[in-house]
Design brief:
Blueprint (H helix, E strand, L loop, with lengths): L32 H8 L53 H24 L3 H24 L8 H17 L3 H13 L10 H10 L3 H14 L5 H18 L2 H14 L3 H14 L2 H12 L18 H10 L3 H28 L3 H13 L6 H15 L3 H9 L6 H17 L3 H14 L4 H13 L3 H14 L4 H13 L3 H14 L4 H13 L3 H14 L4 H13 L3 H14 L4 H13 L3 H14 L4 H13 L3 H14 L4 H14 L4 H38 L5 H12 L56
Helix pairs in contact: 2-3, 2-4, 3-4, 4-5, 5-6, 6-7, 7-8, 8-9, 9-10, 10-11, 10-13, 11-13, 13-14, 13-15, 14-15, 15-16, 16-17, 17-18, 17-19, 18-19, 19-20, 19-21, 20-21, 21-22, 22-23, 23-24, 24-25, 25-26, 26-27, 27-28, 28-29, 29-30, 30-31, 31-32, 32-33
GO biological process, one term: kidney development
GO cellular component, one term: centrosome
Main location: other
Length: about 775
């Protein structure tokens, strides 16, 4: 309590706040004589002892001590008016001329480099030559003005180097070498020796490999060890040249040195190639181990995945996720994986007794490296290698091992299995594995396409179209899905939608003959023959030797009434594929129609060779002889036909007619045979009619009773045993259709392709339904 002081009523709580130093009283400044004197003059800064005031810069800044009352404050001297204009430079002086010329030379070099960067190589060379002329004029002018000692060597070097580079870019190698030689031989240019690398590159392009090696080594001698990266690149070039020369041992020396000093992916791959060339198994293995242990020096992909709720951090990650540096890292990783996969596929059959054992070794090595995810891809490649060797069972067994792996690998393996079973026409298994692939990865377009194919084969076209559409939603650039969708719409007779699909596909695959043929066929179905002809013309511009496309063009022109154009395309089709019966028949008929029967004979004779059991071609040959007036040859041909087909009525009729016209004795024999054959034919037809009537009666009786009679079964069996109208009556065994028989008038179902994406060859258009094949994945 002794520290507590109570307020006394007499004390003023707010006293003392108005007390201040009078020095800070601004209200009385006008009456302060000392302050006013200090403002008007520099009296306030005078020393108190009356010493002389030191010099200041106030006069230079526009101030004056003799400021009179009424004068204005003008420290910048604006009241004096505008400043006089600058004096113009005299460009006639030698120095100014030299400066202007130097600027022109620099501008020309820059324009030359810019032209080269956009691919205008000829313009770049012209600018480089012009820069060279200007630079020589500049040197001459310096000498005339007495400034020869001040020549700009850097400018001269730039002009010569740019000129040499532009010669090299335009493949004017002798001129480029001369320009480089001028620089290299000039002792005034420092570090010009490294330009021997450029000269070596030119010799390499000219395939003058010994000279290239010489200049690479000269450049290597002139580059110090401080430039390690440059030396490594030159040694890599030396190794590549030795590979081109077939000197693998020397190449191995260079590559091994690089891998020990500064290992990189390309050199490691080249080293494996060299060991493969000399067949050294153990060193191939060691080189592969070195290849997969090369550090890439790139960040992990997890760096680009947002891990927290920090907005700023996520914005930075989003910004760098697709920048050029990350793209470069991705490209390097893809290239590395490509080299490792290629090296494994190359050495697998060579490092062990069987390629399977070699693949297993490579897979084990990859699993223990930083490229673990490539092991599964190698296993799938192993299955594909089995496929190439036509060992389907091993391929299937290899792929089945992936059924318990992670979803991505399982989907890829199941997709390949579905494809394999589809090739073997085991559509149930193909459907099963397509479902498995879809369940593992619903966004896998290949799995959806294979599923659509299995449904397509079952003729459920609506459902197939849904799978193809889903594949396109997952990957809009999937050309197989778009092609198959077009085929599906075509089967559903939705021709406009099919046309839209193939037009979109044509925009992606500009030179696909299959797509263009489908467009032509669709326009033909839409009854627009002119458009169909235009698209077929594009087909033969891509595959000019395709016989079916040419035959189709002939057919369309024939339908339009243009026989001459039709003949031209049919003839070209026959020239490239002389075994198409339809083309042969049209050409033969064309020559007969135009009264050139002698020329028709060669086509019908070829048809006879192709179909020797078809009597009509031989009859056409004999008919051509008869029409051309060569009756003796016609008679011989008919006799030959009669020996092969003694029951042919038409042949016997012509034999009787020819023998009668020529007055031959054999006419009676042929007439007798003709009557006998005609009688046999008549009896056959009567018996056939009789049995048909009896069978019809039996059928009616059977339909009225619950059980059929044994007699009816015997009649049916007899009916089946009757010969056809073109067969001799003695034939009693039932005729069986050949398994490969195809009804020429019936619809032909498009079969799915049994390979990966089909490459169009000269014989791809085998029938009218060209290309109506599914594209499996």
């Amino acid at each position: 309590m002794e520290n507590v002081h109570l307020a006394v009523e007499e004390d003023d709580l707010y006293s003392g706040y108005n007390d201040y130093n009078p020095t800070f009283d601004s209200e009385e400044l006008e009456n302060d004589v000392g302050f006013q004197q200090a403002v008007r003059t520099s009296h306030g800064r005078r020393p108190p002892d009356g010493a002389a005031r030191p010099m200041t810069a106030v006069r230079a800044a526009g101030y004056t001590s003799s400021l009179t009352r009424g004068s204005t404050f003008d420290p910048l001297g604006q009241s004096r008016g505008p400043a006089p204009p600058l004096e113009a430079k005299n460009e006639d002086t030698p120095e100014e001329k030299i400066k202007i010329l130097e600027k022109k030379v620099n501008d020309l070099i820059e324009e030359s480099c810019m032209a080269q960067s956009i691919g205008a190589l000829q313009l770049a060379l012209e600018k480089a030559k012009e820069a060279g002329k200007k630079e020589r004029a500049l040197v001459k002018q310096r000498e005339q003005s007495g400034n020869a000692d001040h020549i700009n060597l850097d400018l001269t070097y730039s002009v010569l180097l740019n000129l040499a580079n532009q010669y090299a870019n335009n493949e004017m190698y002798p001129e480029a070498l001369n320009s480089y030689q001028v620089i290299v031989k000039n002792k005034m240019f420092s570090n010009a020796g490294r330009l021997k690398v450029n000269m070596a590159n030119i010799y390499f392009k000219q395939k003058n490999y010994p000279k290239a090696i010489k200049f690479y080594r000269m450049a290597l001698d002139q580059i110090s060890n401080t430039h390690k990266e440059m030396r490594i690149k030159i040694m890599q070039n030396i190794g590549v040249v030795f590979v081109r020369m077939g000197q693998y041992s020397d190449a191995i020396t260079s590559f091994e040195h690089i891998m020990s000093e500064s290992p990189n992916i390309k050199t490691g791959f080249n080293l494996i190639l060299c060991y493969y060339a000399i067949g050294d198994r153990e060193r191939m293995k060691k080189a592969f181990q070195k290849l997969i242990s090369v550090p890439l020096g790139i960040d992990d992909e997890d760096k680009y995945i947002p891990t927290n709720d920090d907005t700023n951090s996520n914005m930075v990650i989003e910004a760098i996720k697709n920048d050029k540096l990350h793209q470069m890292e991705r490209d390097l990783k893809i290239l590395t994986e490509k080299y490792i996969m290629t090296a494994a596929k190359l050495i697998a059959p060579a490092i062990e007794n069987s390629f399977a054992t070699g693949f297993d070794w490579c897979v084990d090595m990859v699993k223990s490296s930083q490229y673990v995810e490539l092991a599964n891809d190698l296993e799938i490649n192993k299955a594909i290698t089995y496929l190439r060797q036509k060992d389907f069972n091993q391929a299937v067994e290899t792929l089945k091992t992936f059924e318990k792996k992670d979803s991505r690998v399982k989907s890829a393996a199941a997709t390949n299995l579905s494809f394999l079973y589809f090739l073997e026409k085991d559509y149930d298994q193909a459907d099963r594995y397509a479902d498995l692939a879809m369940n593992a990865d619903r966004y896998n377009p290949a799995a959806l396409i294979n599923k659509g194919n299995t449904v397509f084969v079952k003729q459920d076209y609506e459902k197939a179209a849904e799978f193809y559409k889903e594949a396109l939603r997952n990957d809009s650039s999937c050309t197989e899905a778009l092609y198959n969708l077009g085929l599906t719409y075509k089967r559903l007779n939705r021709l406009e939608e099919a046309l839209d699909c193939f037009l979109k596909l044509h925009a992606i695959l500009r030179n696909s003959a299959q797509v263009m043929y489908q467009l032509a066929h669709l326009y033909e179905l839409l009854e627009d023959p002119q458009q169909a002809i235009e698209w077929l013309m594009q087909v033969i511009s891509v595959t000019p030797t395709d016989p079916q496309a040419l035959a189709k063009l002939g057919e369309l022109h024939d339908g339009e009434g243009d026989k001459s154009q039709a003949f031209q395309y049919y003839y070209e089709s026959f020239r490239y594929f002389p075994s198409n019966i339809d083309v042969i028949e049209w050409l033969g008929a064309y020559y007969i129609e135009t009264q050139f029967c002698e020329k028709a004979i060669q086509y019908f004779e070829r048809a006879t060779l192709i179909q020797p059991t078809q009597v009509k071609w031989q009859l056409m040959v004999a008919s051509c002889y008869r029409r051309s007036g060569n009756y003796q040859k016609a008679l011989e041909t008919y006799k030959d036909i009669h020996r092969k087909f003694p029951e042919n009525v038409e042949c016997l009729r012509f034999l009787v007619r020819l023998c009668t016209d020529m007055g031959l004795k054999e006419v009676q024999d042929y007439a007798t045979k003709l009557k006998k054959v005609e009688k046999m034919k008549e009896i056959r037809e009567q018996v056939l009619i009789h049995f048909v009537c009896v069978a019809a009666c039996v059928f009616c009786a059977d339909s009225g009773h619950s059980s059929s009679s044994t007699k009816g079964e015997r009649l049916s069996a007899k009916m089946r045993s009757l010969p056809g109208s073109n067969e001799p009556y003695e034939a009693s065994s039932p005729k069986e259709l050949d398994a490969s028989y195809v009804d020429p008038l019936g619809p032909q179902m498009e079969r799915p392709k049994t390979g990966a994406k089909k490459r169009v060859e000269d014989d791809d258009f085998a029938d009218e339904e060209l290309g109506d094949d599914l594209l499996p994945e």
